[in-house]
Amino acid sequence: MYGIFTPPELPQGFRIQNLVSLDPKNRQNVVDRVRKIERKAFPSSEAFDFDAELKKKNTSMLVVTRPDELTEVVGYLVFLRMRKVALLHKICVVEHMRRKGIGRCLIHSVLLQLEKGGCHSIQLWVDEARSPARELYQSYGFREIDRCVDYYGPGRTGLKMQLSIEK
Ligand SMILES: CC(C)(COP(=O)(O)OP(=O)(O)OC[C@H]1O[C@@H](n2cnc3c(N)ncnc32)[C@H](O)[C@@H]1OP(=O)(O)O)[C@@H](O)C(=O)NCCC(=O)NCCS
To answer: Which Gene Ontology terms cover its molecular function (predicted)?
Structure first.
């Protein structure tokens, strides 16, 4: 069970929105912006295929934007919902906006949604070397349940983490 924190706050003027809640004519621009952020933050071998993945009906993306300037995306999270288990695929915050609580807000938002939807647990894989992400997950109570050497390529260990979200 994850810890109950005081709900985190986004920097002023920003909001978390589900991609599907946006006007369809704005969605592609938002996804294009997310793709650019993704290219900067992750090696090409880990680049997420947004066009293919977002077509899957159990995959959702949350974006942090300004409602009046939707293409100013400063963070995103992609997750996949199966019956009782969810998979956190990606979380990323643009470099100049890190350490302002945006990552925490994204995690908090997805956990609330999954809990309301009756999901029992959430799992993810993270590169062992990504300490900011590991710290963030651990602060919510995610625990390592598996590890795989060379998961992300030679010398890059992947950690599988899980959090129970049952009431
Ligand atoms: C991981 C990431 C999403 C965190 O986003 P963020 O908005 O900077 O995180 P927050 O400001 O909400 O920080 C929440 C907590 O995470 C941990 N954390 C975040 N950045 C950290 C850092 N550089 N060093 C240590 N802990 C860190 C801390 O516990 C922090 O709480 P605190 O500020 O009260 O100490 C961001 O660093 C990022 O986009 N990294 C690159 C992409 C990535 O590695 N994604 C994960 C794999 S898919």
So the answer is: acyltransferase activity, transferring groups other than amino-acyl groups
